[in-house]
Amino acid sequence: MKEGKKVKPLLIVGPPGTGKTSAAHAIANELNYDAIEVNASDLRDRTHLQYIVESSGAVSLLSGKRRLIILDEIDALPGEGHAIASLVKELISKGIPIVMTANDPYERHLYEIRNLSMMVKFSRVRWQSVVSVLKDICRKEGLSVPEEVLNKIAKSCQGDLRAAINDLEGLVKGSAELLKYIGEKYGKRDIETDVFKVLSSIFYGENCYPAYLSSLNLDMDPDMLFRWVEENVAHVYSGRSLAKAYEMLSLADIMRGRIIRTNNWRFLAYYTQFMTFGVCAAKEGRPEGEKLRPPSLIKQLSATKELRSKTKEFLEKIAKRIHVSTAVVRMELIPLLIADAKAGGKLIRQLGRELGIRESDMREILSDIEEVYKLEAGGKGA
Predict the structure, then answer these.
(1) Fold designation for 193-296
(2) For a designed S-S bond to 252, which of 83, 235, 274, 359 qualifies (C-beta 3.0 to 4.6 A apart)?
(3) Mean pLDDT in the chain?
(4) Is 226:210 a contact under the CB 8 Å cutoff?
């Protein structure tokens, strides 16, 4: 780039917390470019993407610098692979430098993007290197943290530097709860946080910011985390604390509705903050210890494990027959077949003959699938 040569987009890949996005910003700084970061939620917003394409070739009005586009976490959108590839091609045609990041570059939808890019792999950070970074942060912030604590943080983060920094921040901000999670009591953790730890931080933590931070490392859909919080809040809180917590959950639900209606995933941060930080801040005093429990939905899904296994087998059989993915069968074909079964069954009889399944068995399977859909939707219908 410094020599004025046309280069391929850079695809930085590796586990979470290993510095991929930081490296992208460092590249922009080294080239003296303005970094324009585009994350997964932005990539869903077609209007915003068009603005990025149209404005990326111009110099910044504030700094007078050229722009470098950072497409962050492109593997987080399995349905957007072709759209991202088209965007990359358009930016390449305009001579705009691009840096992309991904955890798993071998996701099926990234095939076209891999061919367009030069890939660089990042590995997990050694715990000794994590300790060095934490010591440097403590020195610059004027903090005094025992080295054995820094060692425990570094070893428990399993090569995720971002998680280690989050843990250190939560610790120095006074979260006794987070301190309990570091070290031998819970052992080493993977990059994901256990849901019970997140809930404990929400309901019993003295400092609420770590409750939000810990949720960011949780490998769980935000809607499922919402169900966990909703299930347990009435068992832990009472009185004014419970009323305030339900208000925070209602605000979170409003944000979820806005995401669905507008497809604007920027609201996701507010959704998560209301259900974690908001619910944590709602308590007045420390609640008495209550045994945390999974939401009733999980128990129901566990009870229907065999049924869902049969459903999966049925979906795969149809997908193989008509040469599409099981996701397409599930989202587009099954609702039509369920409606057809209630309206006479012409389609299911034809499909049953092709698959070698009797009509009565086909109806029974579709009825079971409809129940599973209702269950997964929380009783709100398929």
Answers:
(1) Zinc Finger, Delta Prime; domain 3 (1.20.272)
(2) 274
(3) 77
(4) no
Question: 74-78, 249-253, 255-259, 312-316: lowest mean pLDDT where?
Answer: 74-78
For residue 353, give the amino acid letter.
R
* Per-residue pLDDT reduced to its tens digit, 118-176: 889 988 888 899 999 999 999 998 888 888 888 888 887 778 888 888 778 777 765 54
Greater confidence (226 vs 302) lies with 226
Given a contact cutoff of 8 angstroms between Cβ atoms, the answer to whether 20 and 14 are in contact is yes
Q: Which CATH number fits domain 125-191: 1.10.3470, 1.10.8, 3.90.25, 1.20.1250?
A: 1.10.8
Q: Where are the domains of the chain?
A: 10-121, 125-191, 193-296, 304-376
- Residue 54: the pLDDT is 67
Question: For 201-232, what is each residue's pLDDT tens digit?
Answer: 899 887 888 788 778 767 677 888 898 899 89
Q: How far is CA 279 from CA 94, 191, 197, 247, in A?
A: 47, 24, 15, 9
Counting Cα atoms < 13 Å in the Cβ hemisphere of 306 gives: 1
Length of the chain counted residue by residue: 382
Query: For residue range 12-40, what is the model confidence (pLDDT) as tens digits?
Result: 988 878 889 899 999 999 988 888 887 65
Pairing mode of beta strands 34-38, 98-102: unpaired
Of the spans 102-116, 244-258, 306-320, 358-372, which averages the highest pLDDT? 244-258
Enumerate the β-bridge partners of residue 98: 69
